Amino acid sequence: MTSVPQRISREVRLAALPAGLPTPTDFALAEVPVQAPAPGQVLVRNRQFLVYGGLRTLLSAAAKDTPMPTLRPGDTLSGPAVGEVVLAPPGSPLRPGDVVTHLRGWREYALVPEAECARADPALPDPVAQLASGSTAYGALTRVARVREGDVVLVTGAAGGVGSLAGQIARLLGASRVIGSTGSPGKAGRLVAELGYDAVLTAGSWREGRGSGISREAYRAFAGQLAGAAPDGIDVLLDTVGGPQLTAAVDAARQGARFVLVGALSGQLAAEGSGATAPTEIDTFRLIVKGVSMRGYLAADHPGVRAEWTARFADWLRSGQIRLPFTRVTGIDRAPWALQELIEGKRFGTVVVELPDHG
């Protein structure tokens, strides 16, 4: 195998378990020599990686049953990334120069098992599109909620990576009215003007009274706005938040409503909690009498979704039927700050760290 030129890779490691919400001081930038791949591995030069709020849960000592491994001090962070193969073993289906996706982001160079790499789909016009969370939104809306013509759809956390695509997908699937929620009037305006939401609710932010299960004031404020935006109730909920917004959504459910839960930011980003639980109150009697279904969505349960989504996403992007809002942050040294700003609600859409060549 070809030897690796003398190179240094920078990577973001967990320096200490956060006492509350993570801050940049909880992370450290380490420099390590680039190693040659072992049999069955490829060496990838990462170009972009995703910054996502769910990472906070992986930093909790209380987390369990998570789809990705939890982290301990000294561990390098991980998450979706796009990169270019630098070295591959003889007989590998991958070749130097191939653009691939994998889950070993937060580092400039990654040794990745071949089985954990997938060639990036050339139909997508921008590498950032490979990192979009649309597959989650699409799978949740087509496999669990099964959006139908004429549905009224509510998407909580609509300005995030999932929500900013979910509303557009719901419309393309036939929804007659799409309602979102966000904590910022500025983001609300963008969701309506740029992404086609019919109404966006800003009252009753889950950030109010977080960690206490449900804030009555937040619940009443959100329920009031939801009643105004959907006076006849909702057919579908795609929920990334939980908390008082989920409580109010249950109260607004129409007969046979379908709820799909893809996140729980009210607990995951609670400053006083562990980030590993998201308690709230639900009127189970209403679930029964209205025949409401409620399920969590896990991508691993729906292995065919990603390929289907990528094909439709590429078509929708080329035709201009869908937009991908994202924020680019340049440099791995800025990644911890990008995570903090995302947690604080200062970012819109998908957040990606770009890794230019250095040194």
Automatic annotation (TrEMBL):
Record's keyword annotation contains Chaperone: no
Alphabetical list of Pfam families matching this protein: ADH_N_2, ADH_zinc_N
Domain Enoyl reductase (ER): start-end pairs: 20-353
Highest taxon of source: Bacteria
Annotated keywords: Oxidoreductase
Full protein name: NADP-dependent oxidoreductase
The species this protein was found in: Streptomyces rubradiris
Phylogenetic classification of the source organism: Bacteria, Bacillati, Actinomycetota, Actinomycetes, Kitasatosporales
